[in-house]
């Protein structure tokens, strides 16, 4: 019997999330050469086989980065959040946080808090993929020297994979080799740490609402729009109207919410 492993990739913009997803799937989604990924969107790749009897469905996100803080309209953020949660309805077997060496910033902590703790309720194993290790020999040197910094910050990872997912340019042939090696290492880690069954984030409409409220309230705090947080017992539609959707738009948005298929 074959197993489908569902993985969510998150982390600061520009750390190599899309490059990683492209390398794992063979798809060619656009990588960003600038740091303008302000539209907090998610994208789920086509299912691909990663080894005998195992296939992968990977979801890429834009992630929280400081430059987006003042510039994402609440309407867009809510829409993107609802879409992300809908895309997540079958749950995940593993989370991957993407990070670019060398600097560990507040953004790493924020992304961890939002995706690992708030959205996933700390129920899903997480690994860290550190990109930009092309100048280290071996690439894993970074982990040996810096890996415990995360632990001290309270960020827990099953493993840290030091990698390079760059492509093109004058170093193309070097990158190709390092990318193959990194892809193999990430696939091995996915197989080692993914749960047997996907962990669902919600199972009923009611638990969806609770999750949406919890994650929106966190996000509203991060975006600095505290006045748009859910109030106790406030119906979702009321909040959406407060954020600026018309009643029709709000109804349409909520109508798209599905609950997980039971298994
Ligand atoms: N030097 C180097 N560049 C990388 C690496 N991984 C990705 N990049 C480059 O970093 C830029 C941003 O990558 P992207 O995958 O779009 O990051 P995302 O915003 O997290 O999805 C692109 O120009 C990539 O080619 C890496 O391991 N090393
Ligand atoms: Mg990207």
TrEMBL record:
Residues 6-87 form the G domain. This is GTP-binding protein. It comes from the Bacteria. It holds the Pfam family MMR_HSR1. It comes from Merismopedia glauca CCAP 1448/3. SUPFAM superfamilies: P-loop containing nucleoside triphosphate hydrolases. Signal peptide: none annotated. One of its GO terms (molecular function) is GTP binding.
